[in-house]
Amino acid sequence: MREPRAAAPTTAPAAGAPAAPRGRRADAERNRAAIITAATAVFAEHGADVDVREIARRSGVGMGTLYRHFPSKEDLLRLSLEQEFTAWLTQAHERAAATEDPWQALSGFFEQVLTTQAHNRALMDSYVQTGGPTESCVHKCRVFIDALRQRCEQAGVLRPGVSTEDLLSLSGSLCTTVQTVGDERRWRRLMTISLDGLSSRHREPLPS
Amino acid sequence: MREPRAAAPTTAPAAGAPAAPRGRRADAERNRAAIITAATAVFAEHGADVDVREIARRSGVGMGTLYRHFPSKEDLLRLSLEQEFTAWLTQAHERAAATEDPWQALSGFFEQVLTTQAHNRALMDSYVQTGGPTESCVHKCRVFIDALRQRCEQAGVLRPGVSTEDLLSLSGSLCTTVQTVGDERRWRRLMTISLDGLSSRHREPLPS
Amino acid sequence: MREPRAAAPTTAPAAGAPAAPRGRRADAERNRAAIITAATAVFAEHGADVDVREIARRSGVGMGTLYRHFPSKEDLLRLSLEQEFTAWLTQAHERAAATEDPWQALSGFFEQVLTTQAHNRALMDSYVQTGGPTESCVHKCRVFIDALRQRCEQAGVLRPGVSTEDLLSLSGSLCTTVQTVGDERRWRRLMTISLDGLSSRHREPLPS
Amino acid sequence: MREPRAAAPTTAPAAGAPAAPRGRRADAERNRAAIITAATAVFAEHGADVDVREIARRSGVGMGTLYRHFPSKEDLLRLSLEQEFTAWLTQAHERAAATEDPWQALSGFFEQVLTTQAHNRALMDSYVQTGGPTESCVHKCRVFIDALRQRCEQAGVLRPGVSTEDLLSLSGSLCTTVQTVGDERRWRRLMTISLDGLSSRHREPLPS
DNA sequence: CATGAATGAGAGTTCATTCAT
DNA sequence: CATGAATGAACTCTCATTCAT
């Protein structure tokens, strides 16, 4: 009556973990992970409005189990996005750290935003609308972007007057087009245009 | 316990209208118009997800009438947006025609897109997602933008390689930020940046 | 898929009412009445905790219809009880007015409370717990009881110091026994005892 | 992300308990007691409708243990009340035995009923509805009340014709008011009235 | 034998669409 | 041809009870 349990939790049991340390917890944790995995996938595909039952079905658990782990749909959504967002931001940090050229670091971030957008609807929806699923996430992201901005500024490659908020909004704004146009080459063009508008080649002051 | 039957449809029967065989037609047409008007307002305010009842209420007709004229919510939405879109595009034409400077015509269009976005949620949503409510609308819009593009191109003020699609997507993409940030000065900055990226100061080829 | 429509609305179309004056309203009113009737019956039988679906089923309407007439279960409950309470209090008024002897009027009221209790669980539950389904109901009831009390007091048949609140609480308190013991003769004995305790034969002051 | 497994059941394993074969038994018995204790407290506070989880939480055992000892919520409720009821009745016996004046013994019992009502919701609910949680309890209570009644009767202080059932019902009936009115002085008035109605000052026969 | 996670049948409520009047 | 009442599937969430570990 239920699929035989999807075999693929995203977060697999940590590599060298020995036989489950505690009788039950392992299974519960597996379920919890399965729910988040499923939720993440479902939210990514259909957005935040999907039926919770779809998530329960996909994760192979009953409604009760789902609600035992997450007291409300809202909570599940938040947690799922929080996790995704964190992973995403971590990757962003790594990439930026591995990139010497400040401008390339910035463009790399824009690229990551847009690539992710193609694969996770709910995640990027939250990025676009509020900057992230959580105040804390938004803050961290802002801090990260601010660092990027300062690097570029000090290298003299960023248009004067560009704020962190500008970068946040602009990167989010471009997300729309990824949803709209399936073709990657298409949205890369827009990204290039916007980034060029951010370059220090332009020195005219921005409004207000 | 119930109001004695509000005898007052918003559009009252025209005074001297004879019991002409066409009376019904006229009435129906009036209803149809009232529905579209109301739908337009409601969709603009609350987006495409509003309860259909709200539209019926606002237009002063019953649900049956509404569904007689429009077989589904979808249809009503499409038609309402079609109309709005056309009016909007007409205005865009007029403005562009009245603007001598090609570049100013282009920026003026971007500005109109974003200003409208602040006032008509559903309309711009469709613009962002598919370029317009209808294939036909999208086409007309594309033609218009193409004209703008050509004017700019011929004046040598547009970055080489920028396509009509680019302009369509880019203008739509900026819409997001209007929703997100309430402040007009905020989104004007992003618009400036994007437009600058479109200027002929940049001659590097765009990807693909 | 639904019973062919229970033929018996409690509130039948007013006697000499000619063919339904208004196209639809009549039917809707019938449904509304059917819902209240069903709700009243169901609440009376099972208390306030029944499934709303049971009411919908019993009244022969869909859930939507029920919720069209009453925005929430709470509202339906309140209205149903309000109606019952009013009818009940009206009858109480009539009886009291038709009874010359003040003491008999008081006992008659107690009797009515208990008789009703045997037939309407939710109604009397509200009477017992808060004095009625609504502040307004409670007030009216209090006023009525106060009148009864004054009549008895002036006739010198009521124990000195007995307050309106005492009478309200005492009548409610006896309700319990009706639920408990099915036999009418049983609870009449208790009523007699309590009423005797209220008689002016006792002149000892009440506590506090 | 989860507390490291709270190692602390409320009733910790007694220090020097040997790994005796009876160890399990003892443990089980301790659990059973803990459950009843918790259930009693919880039922007293919130009534019989509380979530079973609350009881498990409060007793420090898992749901499985709870259901091992008590096959259903109903059973647990019954047992908990049975125990409370017995203790309560024992106390009633003691008080009655320690009271010389028969009438004072009777009033004392009424007072105990009402005082308890203020402190143990579920217990008194069962008293009110069925006379007690169990046929056996009801019987014992009836016997006790009958003794009280006989003492009063023989002392000539009880209204002739008052049955044991009358006393049972009347004392239960007054419980309602304790729930309703918080003020102790308020329900004492009603109690006084009812008791006065039971006094031998009234010699009129009771109905039926 | 204890654990507490899992279950799933409802609960109250909403809304696009249909249909009797 | 208009009306707006009726429909009912779908939604989020709860809780008594079972079952794998």
UniProtKB/TrEMBL annotation, chains A, B, C, D:
Molecular functions (GO terms): DNA-binding transcription factor activity; transcription cis-regulatory region binding
Biased composition (Low complexity): 1-21
Alphabetical keyword list: DNA-binding, Transcription, Transcription regulation
Keyword match Transcription: yes
Residues annotated as domain HTH tetR-type: 29-88
Positions of the UniProt region annotated as Disordered: 1-28
PROSITE patterns: HTH_TETR_2
Alphabetical list of Pfam families matching this protein: TetR_C_43, TetR_N
Record feature DNA-binding region, as residue ranges: 51-70
The protein's name: Transcriptional regulator, TetR family
Organism ancestry: Bacteria, Bacillati, Actinomycetota, Actinomycetes, Kineosporiales
